[in-house]
Design a protein that fits this description.
Blueprint (H helix, E strand, L loop, with lengths): L4 E7 L3 H12 L5 E9 L4 E8 L2 E9 L5 H18 L5 E5 L7 H8 L1 H6 L2 E11 H8 L20 H11 L2 E5 L3 H10 L5 E4 L5 H4 L22 E8 L5 H7 L8 E8 L6 E8 L2 E9 L7 E8 L3 H13 L3 H5 L13 H4 L2 H4 L1
Parallel strand pairs: 1-5, 1-6, 2-5, 6-7, 7-8
Antiparallel strand pairs: 2-3, 3-4, 9-13, 10-11, 10-13, 11-12
Helix pairs in contact: 5-7, 9-10
Pfam family, one: CobW_C
Protein name: Cobalamin biosynthesis protein CobW
Length: 354
């Protein structure tokens, strides 16, 4: 079997946290390299820095055909990681992503046996770093990334909280800094059930680069209800489709301050389209995620918020009002809409989505 070099992927929304985590990895043991990348949309360039325990090994600015995260991965990230692996100089690589970058595109590539194998790489872990005392503010921040000059492309319409939430959801290892009851509870509510949370300064190479012999045991996630009486999660599920007119009319009642929501939904006017919901505060992204796979269609939306418990009741009421009724289901009133259902701006025209 060919020898491959393990790569741990690190995502953050704070350059200081990124550099702190990278430094901790470098001093944890010999044989580690750090690849750090930063995108500049204005100049359409990428700055690539490679360092190890001896200092900076490489620091160059690379022009990109398009200043976007996908192009950066294709044009520079994978080739550079491959050259680093092929050099024989390092045993492991930490890839510190551009600030606010989603780890999914690069982790998908590194987890693909053919793509990763061509470059002599394998995915070791995907980690995210968050600061607990500021997490409540950061997670529900609906300011566009472009306002903070953190957008990774001209069409990167994400808000800051969306970037934070995405990194928490996609990380297998969540590293936290500081102490805060609400921040700690939010991490536990948002991160995956089978993932691991550690204090940044307790994490070692065995956590970022686990092997069969050193793989840490996954501890059960604590009881969410006992973490904080201020943080809550509400799961809304229905096997019935949602009525497009009522959903459009009530959508503002489901995009609320201090609430994030994510999931899938089944729209009565688009029976074949799997619809995706991703909201932070007053910012809501709705998109088509392909066609429904075989089996039943259903809606599952998960909301996490802080504070007023009446918000949960309001969300449940707004959602229930959108679900098609027994009468609509039994009389065949649920059918493809002849007229515009109002969701073309998000989901495309219905003849294209069908």
């Amino acid at each position: 079997m060919p020898v491959t070099v393990p790569v741990a992927v690190l995502s953050t929304t704070d350059p200081v946290l990124r550099d702190t985590a990278a430094f901790n990895v470098l001093v944890a043991g010999p044989g580690t390299a750090v690849l750090r990348q930063d995108l500049d949309r204005a100049s359409r360039t990428l700055r690539r820095t490679i360092s190890d325990i001896t200092g900076v090994v490489d620091d160059v600015v690379v022009p990109l055909e398009h200043a976007c995260w996908g192009c950066a991965i294709r044009e520079d990230s994978l080739p550079t990681l491959g050259r680093m692996a092929g050099s024989g100089r390092w045993e492991r690589i930490l890839f510190a992503l551009p600030v606010a970058a989603d780890c999914m595109p690069i982790t998908a590539a590194l987890a693909h046996p053919v793509v990763a194998g061509e470059h002599g790489l394998r995915l070791a872990s995907a980690a995210s770093v968050v600061e607990l005392p500021t997490l409540r503010r950061d997670l529900f921040d609906d300011d566009p990334l472009a306002v903070r000059d953190l957008a990774l492309s001209d069409d990167d319409g994400r808000c800051f909280g969306e970037a934070v939430a995405g990194q928490l959801r996609h990380a297998g290892l969540v590293l936290t800094v500081g102490a805060d009851e609400v921040g700690h509870a939010l991490v536990e509510h948002v991160r995956g059930a089978t993932t691991t949370r550690l204090d940044l300064y307790e994490a070692g190479l065995e956590h970022l680069f686990p092997t069969v012999r050193t793989r840490p045991r996954i501890t059960a996630r604590p009881d969410l209800q006992g973490l904080s009486d201020q943080v809550w999660t509400l799961e809304l599920v229905s096997t019935r489709p949602l009525h497009p007119e009522r959903l459009l009319a009530g959508i503002e009642g489901m995009a609320l301050p201090d609430v994030i929501g994510r999931g899938r939904f089944h729209l009565a006017s688009r029976p074949h389209t799997l619809c995706e919901w991703d909201g932070v505060g007053g910012q809501l992204s709705i998109a088509a995620a392909g066609r429904w796979p075989g089996g039943g269609r259903s809606t599952r939306l998960v909301f996490t918020g802080v504070g007023d418990p009446e918000v949960r009741a309001a969300l449940l009421q707004a959602f229930s009002a959108c679900v098609c009724t027994d009468h609509e289901m039994s009389t065949g009133a649920v059918r493809p809409w002849i007229d515009d259902d109002g969701f073309d701006p998000w989901l495309g025209t219905r003849h294209q989505a069908a």
